[in-house]
TrEMBL record:
InterPro entries: Beta-lactam-related (IPR001466), Beta-lactam/transpept-like (IPR012338), Diverse_Enzym_Activities (IPR050789). It comes from Lactobacillus helveticus. PANTHER family: BETA-LACTAMASE-RELATED, BETA-LACTAMASE-RELATED DOMAIN-CONTAINING PROTEIN. Residues 294-316 are annotated as: Disordered. Residues 175-541 form the Beta-lactamase-related domain. This is D-alanyl-D-alanine carboxypeptidase.
Length: 660
């Protein structure tokens, strides 16, 4: 007889006494005890879905039942769940509800009005708190072997509480700053901030297309709304590919320590390869950006010369393809730049390959898989690949590059687009090679739908009655890489402020998220139950002149504060902290002073776009000129200097493409 069996036999009586005694421990006034019945349905209408808690009690004490804990007896009546103050519900069903007591965080919710063999939804919002909560199911005296109670407890969902935060001074300062930036040449932005299960900020700014192809400002384009879609660029990696990979891992359909050639048998080294490592490459290596691939082999560009990247040469690219059916072959043919596992180099190739792995395992194209198995079950109707093909009007999508992928005529390759991109993915490999659907780019979305996915991460894998992945899988993916804590499995991490330039130095070390080349930021702080979704289209601006192939990526939008992410993220965290007016005035004074000093000291910061950005920050400061600290600053010698400089350079706003 093993030790577990001995403990089970000896503890059965003690456990029964413990369960019976627990019903008299807590005394709560009757007005609080009474449950709120949100719905009552018959047995045949058992609530569908997947839940944080989905169990029957009491737990069978058989030796071979893994759910029965012989070492920690109270674990047989207690369950942890994640929740937030002021929200929550639980479904219960019992053939004899009078024989059970249900407690939330030690508060008794009486089941006396629960009918036999009927599912009932109980409101538990009076008893929940932010973070971990406790559910306890205790049997009453006289319980029989046939008496059971079933419990289904959903994951938290977002509640709109933006009205409460309308007078938050930090959000007011943020609004002034973003609006001033847009007035001074920035294209548009959309932001959602969530905290403790609530949407506390949701705003949209600017117009869906800001400039003509020759760089003149458009004043009549449709305004951005909260439903406008943005090209998410590399945020696709997290909110499409990682979501899918984490779901497949949680469902035991994918082992990230498996070698890639167990999925694609041809994925092997060749005798002629100078650096070998493909044969033993694992999915984990790819997720950790340590697979050996170059950052961007430009599969789409026939004129890309890997030996001289800044000097195009006709048909020089040995791995060129614009045929999606050939991309796996081209990835296998891509020379490794270093031995896998020895470095961390961020690469689009890694996520292109992960997308193909998802498709091979599921038998569905990546867009079909994530939309059908993740987004649609969650009710996300503004998150998708190829939006124009799915009925989304062009004017409800923020535009990106003004002249296709040509960088105002400096770049050329087969089939290049030269029109303003709006609703087609900007990323060249995603559009030309992958036909709009790739693991590294191609996803479009709005901040509100991304906020649901961010909340799902905070919830540890589920939302409402939908579970996408389990908590253990999430922990595996977001934990720090041993030799580079700014990386998880795909996720970028704050660590010791390694990503503070984007995530804000105010975010916790456990914060994860990503950025996207088109101007998108997602920040998820699971420690503080906070997320910031900032979507912009910074590439919807002219290229700075004089253009060359080497400086072809120098968009005017990249010179604005909004494109540097971290300041807006810091304001969002400060708003959560409810920073006061004086603190916010000091922030704006610091921003305008530091920006002015940058322009004075650094030649690279003396472009018209930089000057226009300074004008925007200055205007945000002046909008609060009636505040004591701002008034004092504007009358100081530094304030007067900045005021004079802004007045002398107002014309920069009208021609942001000029360097001087």
């Amino acid at each position: 007889m093993n030790r577990k069996h001995l403990v089970t036999k000896s503890c059965t009586a003690a456990l029964s006494l413990l369960m019976l005694a627990s019903t008299s421990v807590v005394c709560i006034p009757n007005s609080i005890n009474q449950p709120v019945f949100a719905a009552t349905i018959k047995r045949s209408q058992e609530p569908a879905g997947q839940y944080q808690i989905n169990e029957s009690f009491p737990i069978d004490e058989k030796d071979d039942n893994p759910r029965f804990d012989t070492w920690s007896l109270l674990d047989n009546i207690n369950r942890k769940f994640y929740g937030f103050k002021g929200q929550g519900s639980v479904w219960v069903h019992s053939n004899n509800p009078k024989k059970f007591s249900l407690y939330i965080n030690g508060r008794n919710i009486k089941l006396t009005k629960v009918g036999r063999n009927k599912w009932v939804k109980l409101d538990i919002s009076k008893y929940t708190k932010n973070g971990n909560n406790a559910l306890q199911i205790s049997p009453q005296k006289g319980i029989s072997a046939s008496d059971k109670i079933d419990v289904k407890l959903p994951y938290p969902v977002l509640i709109d509480n933006t009205k409460k935060y309308r007078d938050n001074d930090t959000f007011k300062a943020m609004d002034k700053l973003i609006k001033a930036e847009i007035k001074n040449g920035y294209p548009s932005a959309q932001i959602v901030v969530i905290h403790n299960g609530q949407i506390i900020k949701r705003s949209a700014y600017g117009r869906v297309n800001a400039y003509t192809q020759d760089g003149k400002r458009i004043k009549s384009a449709p305004k951005v709304t909260n439903t406008t879609l943005y090209d998410l660029a590399s945020n696709t990696k997290m909110w499409a590919t990682n979501m899918a990979i984490q779901k497949l891992v949680s469902e035991k359909k994918l082992n990230i320590d498996a070698k890639v050639n167990t999925i694609f048998p041809t994925f092997k080294d060749k005798a002629s390869d100078k650096i070998k490592g493909k044969t033993d490459l694992t999915i984990r290596d790819i997720l950790m950006h340590q697979a050996g691939f170059p950052a961007d082999p430009q599969y789409h560009n026939n004129n890309y010369d890997p030996n001289n990247p800044n000097k195009p040469k006709k048909d020089a690219n040995p791995v060129y393809t614009q045929d999606r059916n050939n991309i796996l072959e081209k990835i296998i043919a891509t020379p490794l730049q270093y031995k896998p596992g020895t470095k961390t180099i961020y690469s689009d190739v890694d996520y292109m390959l992960l997308g193909l792995i998802i498709e091979k395992i599921t038998g569905e194209r990546e867009d079909q898989y994530v939309e059908n198995h993740i987004y649609k079950p969650l009710g996300l109707t503004h998150l998708m690949y190829k939006p124009l093909e799915k009925g989304i009007a062009k004017n409800n999508i923020a535009a990106t590059e003004l002249n296709g992928n040509s960088r105002d005529g400096q770049i050329s390759f087969n089939n290049i687009r030269r029109y303003t991109l709006q609703g087609q993915v900007h990323d060249e490999k995603a559009y030309y090679t992958m036909h709009g659907v790739s693991g590294h780019a191609g996803l479009f979305g709005n901040a509100s739908d991304l906020a649901v996915l961010a909340q799902m991460v905070i919830n540890r894998g589920g939302y409402g009655n939908h579970k996408v992945f389990d908590e253990d899988t999430l922990d595996e993916f977001i934990k720090p890489k041993s030799n580079n804590p700014s990386y998880g499995l795909g996720w970028r991490r704050q660590a010791s402020n390694a990503y503070g330039w984007a995530f804000s130095g105010l975010s916790d070390a456990s914060t994860v998220g990503h950025t996207g080349w088109t101007g998108t930021l997602t920040v998820v702080d699971p420690h503080d139950n906070t997320a910031v979704i900032l979507l912009t289209n910074e590439r919807n601006t002219p290229i700075l002149k004089p253009e060359t192939t080497a400086t072809a990526n120098d968009f005017a939008g990249g010179h604005y504060l909004l494109s540097k992410y971290g300041d807006i993220a810091s304001l969002a965290f400060a708003a959560v902290n409810d920073d006061k007016q004086s603190a916010n005035d000091a922030k704006l004074i610091s921003l305008v002073t530091q920006r002015y000093n940058e322009i004075q000291k650094n030649k690279d910061d003396q472009t018209n776009a930089d000057k226009a950005d300074l004008c925007g920050i200055y205007d945000a400061v002046v909008s609060r000129k009636h505040n004591k600290a701002i008034k004092k600053f504007l009358s100081s010698s530094t304030g007067k200097k900045i005021t004079a400089y802004v007045k002398a350079n107002r014309s920069a706003v009208n021609n942001v493409r000029n360097r001087n």
